Amino acid sequence: MEKRRFKVGLFIPCYIDQFYPQVGIATFELLKKLGSDIGYPLNQTCCGQPLANSGSEHEALGVYAAFVKNFRSFDYVVSPSGSCVYHVKKHYDILVGSGLVPDEDVNKVRNNIFELCEFITKILGVDDTCAYFPHKVGIHQSCHGLRGLGLGRESELAGSGEGVGVVERLLSKVRGAEIIELSRKDECCGFGGTFSVFEPAISVSMGRSRVSDHIANGAEYITATDVSCLMHMEGIIRRESLDVKVVHIAEILNSSLNE
Amino acid sequence: MELIEIFTSRVNESGAQLHIAPDIEEAYRLAEELVLSNSGDGERFISEQEYTIAEGIYGVAENGGIWLDSTSVSSRVRPFIAENLALIISKSKICSNMEELYRVVSPASTGFGVLISGPSKTADIEQCLVYGAHGAIKHYVILY
Amino acid sequence: MSKHSKEGKKFLSDKSKASWHDDTLWGVRKKRDRAVSMIDDWEVLRERASSVKERVLDNLEEYILQFENSARNNGVIVHRAKNGSELNSIILNLLKSRGFTRVVKSKSMLTEECSLNHFLEYNGIEVVDTDLGERIIQFRGESPSHIVLPAIHLKREEIGETFHNRIGTPAGCSDPIQLTAAARVHLRSKFLNAQAAITGVNFAVAESGTVVICTNEGNADMGLNASAKLHIHCMGMEKIVPTFGDLAIFTRLLARNATGQAITTYTSHYTLPDEDCEMHIVILDNGRSERLRNPIFRNSLKCIRCGACMNTCPVYRRSGGHSYRYLIPGPIGSIIAPFGNCQNVSKKSQNNQNERIYSDLPFASSLCGSCSSVCPVKIDIHNQLYQWRQILTRKKQVSPIKRVVMKFVGKILASHLLYSYAGKIARLAIRISPRVLIYNRLNAWGLERELPVPPKESFNEWFRRTQKS
After folding, report:
1. Separation in Å, CA of C434 to nearest CA in chain A
2. Using alpha carbons only, how large is chain B's radius of gyration in Å?
3. Which of the four pLDDT bands, split at 50, 70 and 90, describes residue C452?
4. Phi, psi at residue B38, to the nearest 5°?
5. What integer pLDDT is reported at residue C345 of this predicted model?
């Protein structure tokens, strides 16, 4: 497919920026490899989701406005995070009519923001990123990406729908990677933002359940579109010294024979 | 006929026992034989043995249910109080699903109607399936 | 720590029971998936069901009037109850004026909403819950923990002990078959001696005045038809469906979604009073019309009480229904509870009271959205929980500390300078602080998890250092 030179704005979520910069680096390198003209607004902060999910949506308007200002000049905004992208698409509606930024800028950003895998498959039309990752990998279907953005078809729905999800599509082309089957395909990991600290017992119970499922089915790595889920599962893995690792899908797709 | 096959599967899944008869006379004879042969399992059922045999008005393939109304039984309690329930239904009276059922029967006209699929059951104790909670313990469907 | 969080932690502390509860209800969800896959046009059916319910809600008063007229033409007596007190009084009067004291009752969450049993018992009426699960919890003086599987929180040994104490089954007997058989005998005598039968209503057909009752046990029908001459059917005003054609959609959806059965054993349609019997229908409001007027939450009135949202909810499965402390637990319950359907409280204080008491419930969720995806009538449950969070926070029904912290966080996140300083400090603090300082009771994350390893450089710092802008 011809690579149109549209301008892509890279949004790196706050917890990736602060705690998992390697995921941001992998995303940046991958998009460049795929021919995108990438801009990274240096003054970006956060999409505001932690505030909104805690019920303080009204305190997040300043954050939302800053986001739109940072990204309105791009044709597309891409982020290695399903939940942030879902949040902008669904919940930035309260910014419309607020007067903090022009409505058309808000809508432009909302209509053109994509999660990374979705961007690669649907906008760039690429399935194969020429990656090499010779490991058994379990896909954790992060909820906002799956049910919110439709990155795959959730197991609650009847019928097979449009077939395979975007993560699976991309991962199946990664050389050496073997995708393992889970017993609960798309159960939530229990992170849920502030849920993870306001209901820690249940949050951890859910996370443990997911990790056990992956381990029981032979996963060497757990991957997902969202670092938040992986951070939560990794916290459990490290505390309990379990034999599995987490890796963001961007890191897998960016890996090659040279590494 | 595909509808009969689906109906048969659903009836079996519901916990009912399906029997085939060549005609309605044979169906009635078989029904009586089945309900009377069931002498119960000893002390399990202290209450007196009761049975009801009735002719269904329509059967529904999608769920293996059989429709009865006030004209099918002498009193409204009969389909529920009997330990053994035998329902006779003609192959020509199997419709595909609930939407068709409500079109072909008049659900309200006789004042009472019930769709019965399988014996009475409960899973209220640890999700263990037990037949015969209050209604029929044994449910026979005779298809002719 | 919120109430749900505390109760949930308690529930989880019995590891084997919690694990059983989670596995068993996940099993029900899987049964549902299998049953659903057998209907080719399931997703279309959901859409149709949702549209019918929307249409009913848009024209509710008209449909209720149509239902009332149809029923009255059938010789049925229809009552309207504004709230739980009224419903209770109506029923008590019907019983007292006929000198009836022996009542059998089939499953009705609505009568529990009104605390009907307590009221009647207080007034000298014997009320026997005839659904096995309901009878078990009635014996134990507990409330149901699930709207379809009320005794799911109990193990067979606990039920066996209860039956031994209450109906004389052998001590130590916990076999479900034997216990069910004993219950059958015990309840049969109640059916055969009942003077009045009270039932719930799954669906009420407006065009004919028919009430539809779905059970697997047949207890509603035994109650009505074995002996009782006074029949009282209690329904929420939102249970109306316009026609039998509409009813068909719901009878195809309900059992599959609830328990994974193609249909319940009995789907009974009562239109005319039986010979020598009186048939009454009581239509309850109790806050429903107020919820109907609320544009965000009116959707919750589409609910057909299948319970699938509970079975699929990973939080419900790991915390149990009682941790919600409300009649209807789980996702749909978390929408309804803060709204308030309590009787005997004035409207203004009722709302504030319920919002405060149940303010933790909309937060007892990771907002995964599984509930919305299984809902047969397409209620956007997780979105309504999100909206409740905003409303409760604005109305100051949540912890003041949390509100202040979030205000502060909002200021930080809106400024790149503040945000990057805060991030740098946090990473430094985690890197250099002794473990005991970080991992203690104050750090809820760290109770059972490690914090991520803080990198020396953030992505932003890396980019500034290595890339030309």
Report:
1. 16
2. 15
3. very high
4. -85, 100
5. 41
B12 → chain C, closest CA residue: C262
Interchain proximity B120–C218, CB inside 8 Å: yes
Inter-CA distances, C395 with B122, C300, C355, C391, Å? 44, 21, 9, 6
Q: Which of B105, B106, B133 is nearest to B119 (CA)?
A: B133
Q: Is A199 in the C-facing interface, judged by CB distances under 8 Å?
A: yes
Residue A171 has pLDDT above 70, yes or no: yes
Angstroms from C238 CA to nearest CA on chain B: 21
- Contact between residue A44 and residue A67 where contact means Cβ atoms under 8 Å apart: yes
Q: List, in order, residues 6 or more apart from C417 with CB less than 8 Å away.
A: none
Touching check for C315 and chain A: CB below 8 Å?
Answer: yes
Structural domain tally of chain C? 3
Q: What is the rounded average pLDDT of the residues C72-83?
A: 98
Q: Which residues neighbour C172 within 8 Å (Cβ) at sequence distance 6 or greater?
A: C160, C164
SS3 label, residue B67? strand
Q: Do the domain assignments include residue C31?
A: no
From chain A, the residues in CB contact with C43 under 8 A are: 157-159
Contacts of C150 (CB under 8 A, 6+ apart): B124, C107, C131, C133, C134, C136, C137, C144
Residue C226 touches chain B, beta carbons under 8 Å: yes
Q: Do B114 and C269 touch (CB under 8 A)?
A: yes
Could C2 and A60 be called an inter-chain contact, meaning their C-beta atoms sit closer than 8 Å?
A: no
pLDDT (0 to 100) of residue A3: 53
Confidence of residue C160 (pLDDT cuts 50, 70, 90): very high
Residue A133 lies in domain: 127-253
Interface of C with B in 20-49 (CB under 8 A): 24, 27-28, 39
Question: Sheet containing A178-179: which strands, arranged edge to edge?
Answer: A178-179, A136-139, A221-224, A245-248
Q: Which amino acid is at C45?
A: L
Nearest to A117 by CA among A162, A154, A74, A81: A81
- Does 3.40.50.10420 match the CATH number of domain B2-37+49-143? yes
Q: Is the pLDDT of residue B101 over 70?
A: yes
What mean pLDDT comes out for the span A141-149? 95
pLDDT value of position C344: 39
Same domain, A137 and A107: no
Residues of the domain holding C413 = 401-466
By percentage, how much of chain C surpasses pLDDT 70? 97
> Searching chain C, which residue's CA lies closest to the CA of residue B117?
C265
pLDDT tens digit string along C324-347?
A: 999 999 999 999 999 875 443 444
Q: For residues A199 and A192, give the distance between their C-alpha atoms in angstroms, rounded to a whole number.
A: 10
Q: Residue A34 burial (CB < 10 Å; 0-12/13-18/19+)?
A: middle
Residues C144/C321, Cβ–Cβ less than 8 Å:
yes
Pseudo-torsion of CA C236, C242, C248, C251, nearest 10°? 0
Give residue for tokens 């009771």.
C441
Q: In Å, what is the CA distance from B97 to each residue of B4, C153, C226, C249, C250? A: 12, 35, 30, 10, 12
Looking at CA atoms only, how far is residue C153 from chain B in angstroms?
8
Residues 6+ away with beta carbon under 8 Å from A112: A74, A75, A76, A77
- Cβ atoms of C301 and C284 within 8 Å: the answer is no
Q: Which of C378, C397, C416 is the last residue of a domain?
A: C397
Residue C208 pLDDT: 98
Assigned token pair, C287: 């806050």
Domain boundary among A122, A137, A167: A122
Asked if the model's pLDDT at residue C49 lies above 90, the reply is: yes
Tokens representing residue C258 in the block: 């609830």
Neighbours of C469 (CB within 10 A): 8
- Judged by a CB distance cut-off of 8 A, whether residue C183 touches chain B is yes
